[in-house]
Amino acid sequence: MSETEALESMVGGEYKYGFTTDVEYEDFPTGINEDIIREISRRKNEPEWVTEFRLEAYEKWKQMEEPEWPNVEYQTPDFDKVQYYSATKKNNGKKPESLDDVDPEIIETYEKLGIPLQEQKQLQGIAVDAVFDSESIFTTFKEKLAEAGVIFCSISEAIQDHPELVKEYLGSVVPKGDNFYAALNSAVFSDGSFVYVPEDTVCPMELSTYFRINNMQSGQFERTLIICEDNSHVSYLEGCTAPMYQENQLHAAVVELVALENAEIKYSTIQNWYSGDEKGKGGIFNFVTKRGHCRGDNSKISWTQVETGSAITWKYPSVIMQGDNSIGEFFSVAVTNNRQQADTGTKMIHVGKNTKSTIISKGISAGESNNSYRGQVKISPRADNAQNYSVCDSMLIGQTCGAHTFPYIESANPTAKVEHEASTSRVGEDQIFYLQQRGMDEDDAISLIVNGFCKEVLKELPMEFAVEADKLLGIKLEGSVG
Amino acid sequence: MLEIKDLHVCVAEDPSEKILKGVNLTIGKGEIHAIMGPNGSGKSTLSKVVAGHEAYEVTQGDILFEGESILELDPDERAHKGIFLAFQYPVEVPGVTNKNLLRQALNTIAKEQGREELDPLEFEDYAHEKLQLVDMKPEFLERSVNAGFSGGEKKRNEIFQMAVLNPKLSFLDETDSGLDIDALKIVANGINQIADEEKSVVMVTHYQRILDYVQPDFVHVMIDGKIAKSGEKDLALKLEEQGYDWLHEEVAVSVNGEQN
């Protein structure tokens, strides 16, 4: 290996998004209580019903305990030390009217992350909502989408501009007291995206949100709500990164999707939060509740996730198939390296007749990490002819990592068909030697093997992001073999 | 082309397990060699060591390729120089198509050798031409590397890869094993078309059979980690008739001779 190559590989193997942006934040006390929640609501100028929603959630949260069943170990965050609201001084909690009002440092940050916001540089065919800590900074292509009747804005804007829609759907898929972290989110949620696609509309471009945690003390509590009316279609993608800090940061998001009759929502995630250093210091705690509701007949919700970051991941994007003939899909690649721990999977709840779900999960563990798949398939008595097909494959790289599979299958209808396949394989020295003999270096060999392993999932990603995901997997596992 | 000098090799994890005990072998440009020998004599190990497998450690001697030692080179660096190994047990890589693997491999090697890389369309044309050498259909390119292939298909795939990558020196490790006569002819035909006065081929084999179709310039017999005897094609025929026992005796005599 030449010197330049060696250098490139070293630089490439590190977390590329770990830099910090120097911005001034508004003062906001840490900790959580009723006054703080009211203050968040006041700063965001929210109507009374939102404040009430938050306070009710807080009351529920106080009664709840952190779940202990996930197969992960960590020190519970000190909820009194987290800052639940973080706004830059410049914006003062208000979304800038134009890009001229956005802190140039932040614009530069997004540029570095590969998400240019300036009009002439914007990614073509993709509308981006940029969320920096707790604030949505800027949303591109808003006008163009509005022409098609599609609403794409931050949830805070939606509360101001489309309160009737938010009121109808917020908390309708993930109730306020659904679980510990969903309740916390419901109490203190900051920005996230809001998407509304009216009837008979195919959203003319990909929608995406780029989440960036910058503030060391702040947690991020994004709230995303996507509603797809009858005969409509939308594809949405989120990307996530954070600076490298020694301390852990909390990210507890709630995402709700509603698909009405014949509607289809495709939701993709590329999660690359900072995962901590080799010894497991620092990194994001990623505790997320994502759920889709196929409310109408013949509707479809599809989750695709490429999870490579975070110190701890606890996440089960689910689909409730209530409408007859509705379809739920979950395609997942979860990669853990060093001391990362992931407990991720899905829940497929079949309620309507002839509902169909597919689960394809690919877990890759390297280093001393631990990777668990946890999935539930539930078939209710009314769900005649429901079908589920699940495949959970695990790949181990090296000798010191772990892979686990926890499938739960409950069927209350005798006409249901449920299939579950699982496999575990190891990236063998023989495979690597074979590819090296064909001329590839070790890192390229591993990257090729892993990409082959994940192919069924990667092909589900929108084109523009498939390439990025491909590279990300390669970088993530560089140098992971001896 | 290749010069193996007094090569001693042991298993990296267990140095007490010595496999090669002083191999000397010179392969000239454009020559076809056959290495025969009983099971466990070190034939396959020799191929893997030339390719740079990490499971083995060279404790003595040297391997020179085009006059330079390659012992310090990684397997991929040896491949860049033009060394190819057709595996005895080709490895499966699920989800990676033959096309993807070969285009990446070919372009990596091209880049290292300062040649121009092929774009996907150019590669497609180039690969189709090579497929004919081993009588395979274009669909073959779209299949995952060796996954679900029959034994014969795997071996043909190795020769196809050799044709695409166009190496200077190829070690074919028991490429003929497990092939029926038709497949053997196809494979042999492929090797004959690839081999020319610029390229060298070393066939590691148990059987004389393939040598009926690919004419070797030299035949070597390996016994107990050494080349016990070298000769021409008729040596292979003698082995076919008489087995290896008479050679064991010869080796024993010469070992005793050395001790005296």
TrEMBL record, chain A:
<dbReference type="GO" id="GO:0016226">
    <property type="term" value="P:iron-sulfur cluster assembly"/>
</dbReference>
<dbReference type="InterPro" id="IPR010231">
    <property type="entry name" value="SUF_FeS_clus_asmbl_SufB"/>
</dbReference>
<comment type="similarity">
    <text>Belongs to the iron-sulfur cluster assembly SufBD family.</text>
</comment>
<dbReference type="InterPro" id="IPR037284">
    <property type="entry name" value="SUF_FeS_clus_asmbl_SufBD_sf"/>
</dbReference>
<dbReference type="InterPro" id="IPR055346">
    <property type="entry name" value="Fe-S_cluster_assembly_SufBD"/>
</dbReference>
<dbReference type="InterPro" id="IPR000825">
    <property type="entry name" value="SUF_FeS_clus_asmbl_SufBD_core"/>
</dbReference>
<dbReference type="Pfam" id="PF19295">
    <property type="entry name" value="SufBD_N"/>
</dbReference>
<protein>
    <submittedName>
        <fullName>Iron-regulated ABC transporter membrane component SufB</fullName>
    </submittedName>
</protein>
<feature type="domain" description="SUF system FeS cluster assembly SufBD N-terminal">
    <location>
        <begin position="143"/>
        <end position="202"/>
    </location>
</feature>
<feature type="domain" description="SUF system FeS cluster assembly SufBD core">
    <location>
        <begin position="211"/>
        <end position="453"/>
    </location>
</feature>
<dbReference type="InterPro" id="IPR045595">
    <property type="entry name" value="SufBD_N"/>
</dbReference>
<dbReference type="Pfam" id="PF01458">
    <property type="entry name" value="SUFBD_core"/>
</dbReference>
UniProtKB/TrEMBL annotation, chain B:
<keyword id="KW-0547">Nucleotide-binding</keyword>
<dbReference type="InterPro" id="IPR003593">
    <property type="entry name" value="AAA+_ATPase"/>
</dbReference>
<dbReference type="InterPro" id="IPR010230">
    <property type="entry name" value="FeS-cluster_ATPase_SufC"/>
</dbReference>
<keyword id="KW-0067">ATP-binding</keyword>
<dbReference type="Pfam" id="PF00005">
    <property type="entry name" value="ABC_tran"/>
</dbReference>
<dbReference type="GO" id="GO:0016887">
    <property type="term" value="F:ATP hydrolysis activity"/>
</dbReference>
<comment type="similarity">
    <text>Belongs to the ABC transporter superfamily. Ycf16 family.</text>
</comment>
<protein>
    <submittedName>
        <fullName>Iron-regulated ABC transporter ATPase subunit SufC</fullName>
    </submittedName>
</protein>
<dbReference type="GO" id="GO:0005524">
    <property type="term" value="F:ATP binding"/>
</dbReference>
<dbReference type="InterPro" id="IPR027417">
    <property type="entry name" value="P-loop_NTPase"/>
</dbReference>
<dbReference type="InterPro" id="IPR003439">
    <property type="entry name" value="ABC_transporter-like_ATP-bd"/>
</dbReference>
<feature type="domain" description="ABC transporter">
    <location>
        <begin position="2"/>
        <end position="249"/>
    </location>
</feature>
